[in-house]
Amino acid sequence: MLAYAGQVLEELRLLQVPYEHPDVAVLESEAQQFYVEIYGGPDDTPYTTSEFTPPHGAFFVGYLDDEAVAMGGWRFRSPGAPRVARRPAEIRRMFVRNHVRGRGFGRIVLTALEASAATAGADWMLLETGRPQVAAVELYRSSGYVDVEPFGHYAGSGLALNLGRPLGPPSLRR
């Protein structure tokens, strides 16, 4: 545990894991159930697990004590959205379990994904989320994400929201 100004803060421990890790499967199942509840069906974006394996991408699980409570991954995608991106990475499968939401764990995972992708050479971080995911949209917008051209599996959906931001120090952002 960490202490700050007399408050005890929880510590999320992030581990980079293969997408096939059993804790990912448990969290993935919960995420899909969440999508069914808010959208009426699961996310059926096509992907392969190798897309989340270095050097193509990475996947992380966040642990609170020994419980897997958060996850997220990124994968490189073809340039094109936004047009200025030369080597964009895309966030996929970002999820925090309901009983630990609101504690800043999503922001911790997001920061780790951005750092990992930037280290691997990404110049932009992109994501596709849904308008009904109000808390997620607020997290991304408060982290500097702006609307970008539609891309991805749900680009034609009125519920989809495509966001992105340049990675790296402000002096290198275009």
Instruction: Quote the distance from N terminus to C terminus.
Output: 39 Å
Q: Give start-end ranges of low-pLDDT stretches.
A: 1-8
Let me know the CATH homologous superfamily.
Gcn5-related N-acetyltransferase (GNAT)
Instruction: Report the sheet-strand fraction.
Output: 25-35%
Number of helices: 3
Give the total of beta strands.
Answer: 9
Strand order of the largest sheet: 3-4-5-6-7-9-8
Kindly provide the name of the CATH class.
Answer: Alpha Beta
Label the overall shape. Answer: globular
Residue-averaged pLDDT, rounded? 89
Over all CA atoms, what is the radius of gyration?
16 Å
Helix/strand order, N-terminal first: EEEHEEEHEHEE
CATH architecture: 3-Layer(aba) Sandwich
Helix content: 10-25%
Q: What structural class do the secondary elements suggest?
A: alpha+beta
CATH topology annotation: Aminopeptidase
Main sheet properties: 7 strands, mixed
Number of domains: 1
